[in-house]
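Exercise 7. Given the components listed, write out the predicted structure of the assembled complex. Treat all entries as one system.
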Amino acid sequence: MKDFFKKLPEQAVRVVVVFLVLAVVVFVIRQFIIPPEMKEPALQRASSEEREAAKEIHYAGAQSCVQCHDKEPEIKKSGYHRDLACESCHGAAQKHVDNPTDVKPTSPKKRDYCAYCHKYNFSRPTGFPQINPDMHNPRKPCISCHNPHNPKPPTTPRSCNACHAQIERAKAASYHALITCTVCHTAPEKHKISPRTVIPTKPDKREFCGKCHDKASPRKGVPTVDMATHGEKYVCWQCHYPHTLGGI
Amino acid sequence: MERRDFLKHLCWVITSGGILGGLSADAWAKMLNKDYDTTKHYYGMGIDIDKCIGCGRCMQACKTENDVPAVPFYFRTWVERYVIRTDRTVSVNTINMESDELGDVLAEKDVLRSFFVPKLCNQCDHPPCVQVCPVGATFKTDDGVILVDSKRCIGCRYCIQACPYGARYLHPKTRVADKCTFCYHRLVRGLLPVCVEVCPKQARIFGDMKSIASPLGRFTRMNKIHVLKPSLNTDPKVYYANLDGEVN
Amino acid sequence: METAQNFMELSKQVVGFIYPNEIDIQWSILIVVYPYITGLVAGAFILASLVKVFNVKELQPTYRLAMLTALAFMLIAPLPLQLHLGRPERSYEMFMTPNLTSAMAMFGFVYLWYLMLVLLLEIYFEYRRDMIVWSSESTGLKKWVLKILSLFSTDISEKAVAFDKKTVKIITIIGIPSAFLLHGYVGFIFGSIKANPWWSSVMMPVVFLFSAIVSGIAMVMLLYMIIKPLLGGKIDMKCLDKVASFLFYAVIVDFSIEVLDFIHRLYESEESIKILSQLVTTKLFISLVVLQILMGMLLPLAVMAVIKVFKLQEEVRKLLYFVCGLLIQLGIFSTRWNVVIGGQLFSKSFRGLTTYKMELMGMEGFLVALALLILPFVILSILIKLLPPWKKEELAGS
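Answer.
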């Protein structure tokens, strides 16, 4: 080793010494001075997880509510809002759980809160009950007619548009505007209670549309086709969408 | 359903205990954390596009629960509205929390199909954000959640660039990267992520993929499942049912 | 709340749809400055290595200047990164727990390697003999600074100087791949982001590298033309022509690689092509088509070709070289802008474009960026004072 250094010119030795000193300093600092929690990823990860887990919760969860409240959950259980968590409307309530007497959760009473879900919007899945707030009893608070814990129309809907507003709207502008829904669909009474499980019918025969649209039909001013040759193996609505203007 | 019952039971323990003993939720959380075994869980989320009504309750609750700045620009979760017109052009917007924009801007007869898409961090199995973090401040926990160590993140924002889903943002107050954690602080207490809790239509299904019987298990069994940007090989753990091909 | 207001304004300029979190442009002008500066370092070093490794004798007058330029820019290179961090006080974490899968984590190590083992060492051995001589000639502070810089070395025997020369050559040989690594690696930081189709490309490190060489050579050429006359020397036209000639070829290579990348993208025409075309033809039109390609590449190429074909007078040549150098700097700066800012102007949903509004004041604003671009020249002037690139005889003789 000594020989090697002797062979090197003095400036090279100087450089090597500088680098060695630097390396030793870095090594000592890293190895002995820096505390482990600054350089051990595993430790840091554990403490980060702990901090994340210890964060305060704001929403207590529906199961907390039923510990004290039994009337509302009982009503809610069988209604349309049965899957709706209490805090979806009443807001974050962990503070109320911690301190039930002093902190009260909110209780939205205005029309615009219900509108978040029930205002008509064509992007919403069809069948979801929607209204136009400007037309549907304007200015009247929703809760004066509907109990939010068991929302039901005060009277059975006269037409289907309570839930099928999108179709209703499209149809109103189409040639079929004057044909009521029940001409083509038979809706079992149960559909109003269990809309997803009991589903209304659709015309299952070509002849149904043929009553007006067949060449042989006595109807005047209606576009007609020769039912015998036109798209024979399909039911009409498999190609034509009867609710829009002119169909597609 | 076992899990549900277990959660119920757990929540009951937390809340009743909290009320009876006068203990804060945090104190209980710490006790529970000791029993919480990260290796026994692996979380994922299912999203059913056909169920989302675009009410924005998830976005609002998430901001409250996770102290996300209350301006309409930083989101851990958000909902996009897709409108595909009959000429096949697509327009998209993020629904506003003050849902005024939800009105029908377009003539409905030009709409071919329309729907809402809830978005959040996909908690990828191969997370590009974790790969690129220079200091290892963002990492995947044993239970499959991607977290950010807010005490070590240097705010270089490389992870934000690397995330294909726009799920991350730089928190304007802490100046570190922030993102959805599946409400990790709620999971360890046996609660659901808050967006799942408040979703009125159960469009979001949360579950543990290590448990055999869970709502998520049923969801993935009964639906055709798609993930976002599968070509990037990130292996998201947010599973979409009825997702439209236009969504990215 | 002020940022919210800003975002409100910005959101009005969004075209199409962007993810809500994308309104915040993450990498600002400072991250444009960073690859620009490291590019200059790598480029200047490559020019210097032409002298030492490839024995291009004509370039000898630029060698020391190129090394000092590389060092001056290298010292500033980490600053824009440091300043843009959300939590600058935590940057040491990069050395505490570097994440080995992160391209960015390697920055500190690549930087230190290049600065300590290449630039400083090479400059030390190159200047050692002169430092000893100069320190013996000077007094006061300068004497001591030079003494410390030469590590109190005293040996100026022929044998020792020969050793210096040999070492410089070896370091340069190590330095070339290191310079490639330094800037290719900066390209990799962008090129490896699969989420971003504007960045994600194997060509990225190569494009970065060649644009670095172009900018570095052009910068040394400009500095040579300014500084040498300022110090009382005369511009060596043989040297200048040679530098310009290398610059010409470097621009050609750089241009072909970029065109290749462009054609490849256009031909493959992947999912992102629509939004990228929209980006190039609208938001990036001025900075990419006009500044980067027309003014920063094609125009200087044409001018240099004219100089090569027609034997122009010395004074005209000088003027044209100078203009070319400036245009190329502008072009390469635009290149950096187009990569860094351009890559953030389109949404990862591929459905919309957003806008970057540069701050004037503020940590990530225009003024700080400007200061960071001026600072290397200040450092360079100090370095030149301390370690003159040309000896008195050279200045007087040429």
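Discussion: Helices of chain B lie at 2-21, 25-35, 57-66, 128-132, 158-162, 184-187, 194-198, 215-222. The longest strand of chain B covers residues 111-120.
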